[in-house]
Amino acid sequence: MPDLTFEQKRITHADGQWADVSIVRCPAGRLRFSDLSPSPARIRLRDAAYFRYSKARIRGEQTPEVIAWACLENDRHVQRMFPTLNTISEEGEHFLSANAFITYFLRELLRRGWLRWRTGDWYASVPAQHAVWEERAVIILHWLMAENRLWLETGPQSTPPGRTAFEGCDPLFHLTPVGRCGYVRDAVREHYPAAAFNSSFFLLERDDLLSHHSALGDPYGLLVENGTIIRPPLYRRTTLWRDATGRWQIGTFGMEDVRLHLPGEVTLYPESGGVKPGRREALFAVNPPGETPVALYTRHFGVDTAGYPIGYTPASKGRFELTIIDRTITGWQRGGNLLIPQNGFVISFAAGRDGQPLMALGDLSTNIAALRELIGGGQVRYSFWQSDHAGIISAQQAGPQLIADGEIVRDASIFAREEYWISAEDAGQDHPGIVPTDFPIDLEHTRAARLGIGIDSAGNLVVLAVSGTSRGIARPGIDSAGATLLELAGLLQEAGAVQAINLDGGGSVQLFAEGGLYNIPGDRRGRQGVVYERLVPTIGLIE
Description:
alpha+beta, 3 domains, nine-stranded mixed sheet, seven-stranded antiparallel sheet
């Protein structure tokens, strides 16, 4: 085949609607996946705040006020950053991450009605009896203002109020932590690849951001760069991966496929792997229904037993639990009942002697140095333990799978197998889902902007984007209609793919070719005809 080819066409769906399709074909060796360098804080702040403002207007709010704060590009240990502050939550969670603690602090100020804005100045009106909160407010708000990391969005045509107390605000709707994300365009200008496109799912909606350890733009799902696991496979989903021979494959990965290397030289293996632990090793169970010495909890916990994601680890006296985001331990708590982040997981240890957490080497009461390393904000490493996965040098997880062995996947049960679960309400009770929490669980009904990648019979790659627009905002006869997942699969099959996977779609779809935008992005933010390029965290680069 030619070294690299580009193609654009307009197709007509069976019901008469049309859609614009952009296709890039390339040899296997030219693709890699990488996290973007985050845009400057002020740019991320303005864009993310306006995105959330637009969401509030679409929900029906007439004059929404959205607060955004830009997380540190490289997180720091909170006690090194704020050594005099009490960094324990009211629920007993010990924060290790400065980003998580600041998010908790701002949400609590807003929830308690203490946060104030006055002509460009942020301050807190803390009752006299809350000395801990007063100290936090003075130090953290001063730092946020000095670093220009706090922003109030009231709309592009509005003048910020001279004074406001943010009465009746929902912290999850009206306060947005903004994580490490950037523009695909900036990466194209920096690296000038032959083609580039967004790839991974990332946190975007209210129910994605329930945890203080989560921020808008944070990615999730397995990512491997140059043989290093950057992010683990939180949910058992389809992955495009490349082995040491350079061959791309599509398969399913979950936390059962990796071992964890914790500070203190302790290695944890999944129970389901049948590995017999040796010295300085132990086994963990993924989302166990009952007590187990070492448990790993993701947001899928509860689906198999309660019928929906429970969201918290089980309450259990004496258990010692770590919150882990990507490769960083960001907090810890005793006694269970710890909120599980959408973009991370919790490792839970049973209590040993003297109430210390039980680990691989017996009781940590005899290994205080290891415990100190854990709660010191240490790093976690991952490795694949099965021989079939040895030598994986690149991988990107998304899903669901669209084509398997030349056949389009038409079985809707694939969503359950890949641990998708959208947010729902049952008998008046909200049940937050599993990210992406608003992803339509259907193969053939919902049309949207789509992005998929496939492998052809010769092992080369096909990247295919279908332009679409935000729901309910398309202009008939002017805007491309997008595609369903089955329609996307059909287009990939027509382009020669015998294996294929869905990547992040909707308003995030951006495909660049030879330095220019090759599709029309679908992010409209409630404004017909206005096109926005969305901040994203991770991209595919064809070099």
